[in-house]
Amino acid sequence: MSDSPAGVVDLLGVLAYAELTAFLRLADDAATLAPTLTDRAALSGVAAAEYAHFRLLRDRLSWLGVDPEQAMEPFVASLDDWHAQTRPGNWLEALVKAYVGTGIAGDFYREAARRVDPDTRKLVNEVLAEEVRSEFVVERVRAALAENPRLTGKLALWARRMVGEALSQGHRLAAARPDLALLLVSTAPAADAAFADEEDQDGRDAAADLVEIGRLFARLTEQHGRRMAALGLVPGP
Amino acid sequence: MSDSPAGVVDLLGVLAYAELTAFLRLADDAATLAPTLTDRAALSGVAAAEYAHFRLLRDRLSWLGVDPEQAMEPFVASLDDWHAQTRPGNWLEALVKAYVGTGIAGDFYREAARRVDPDTRKLVNEVLAEEVRSEFVVERVRAALAENPRLTGKLALWARRMVGEALSQGHRLAAARPDLALLLVSTAPAADAAFADEEDQDGRDAAADLVEIGRLFARLTEQHGRRMAALGLVPGP
Known about the structure:
The structure is a homodimer.
Chain A: H1 5-33, H2 37-63, H3 68-72, H4 76-85, H5 91-113, H6 118-128, H7 131-147, H8 151-176, H9 178-185, H10 196-201, H11 206-231
């Protein structure tokens, strides 16, 4: 078991459900929105990769002696709502969602993983590696924008909406799952994260937390900007 | 390239599209019909395995110098129709479809693979191995029937409908793709299958073909009966 069981189980649980539901939503987008069989197969490949990730996380939860279904349950409503609010209306929106929406969610999980035990961190980072998904999506979106540059504004707006919804659901989750939230904003180093509650009672430095939150958002914004530039939705650095 | 390019390409094409579309339909069933997260994850696992199969077939088509999309295209309408006619209305129907429907389709592909080159045959048999899917589905269906034996008749009828639709689409495909049909019923041994058309002109033995068709149906019926018994939908042997 890790130093911070509740936070670790929450992190693995939310990420497991995120991967399982991403798998199912991407498969649905592939089935209903792909313009060609080749595109359908390519997005299906992204979906199938998400399932492989889910399996790694589920197996880790089982190995920790935790029922995966119970670990995922607290996050079902938030993640289902996020998907309901960001249902793509066409193929390009589906691609941008697969890249930008999944990307920003991944950044949150990666941030949380900075404060868990090394084994969990390694697993989370492995699961979040984006290389496979990136190449295909970036190529397709850039080609579409090159052909019709007027799509840029609309898709950039779509991306912004997904990020807004992600922040809103993230806020909701943080309120409901303090152990998970502590992984994101605690100033305590990894090994002490489990005791952060007690430190709080001892008068933890609230100003340091605010600085840390500021840094967190700076990192998230930077990563998001990098993805938007990769797709050609904002000017590159 | 194989001895029988057209038949082999058709076999790989129909099977590739069958796997891709099975992946997407199973994912949809998992998303919409699974009663628990654990069930959803389990059927998602069956779906993800289908995608892995699809990839093997697509890569083989590319390796043969064939565009996978072109190889799949002739079979899209038939397979989509089969799925439209056999859309499960509930979780148990989804499970029976995953086992019986996919099973009978697999038997056809396996029969066709008897008459292609050894490399293709090996790939097809590898793709069709059913072990993973079987265990989970059989267990769930048997448990449901033990709890409510009155479901047996209804599910047996559902299974029969799927087989009927499969035979109907198989018939349609055989008429449209003679190279594929020849793989199923030709009396010519594997290496000569490519020349079956010419043999036909030389007066091929129609009686021998009828015997062969009879044997084919006997094998298909036997395999189907075995699956129905495994699920508890007919008395076992």
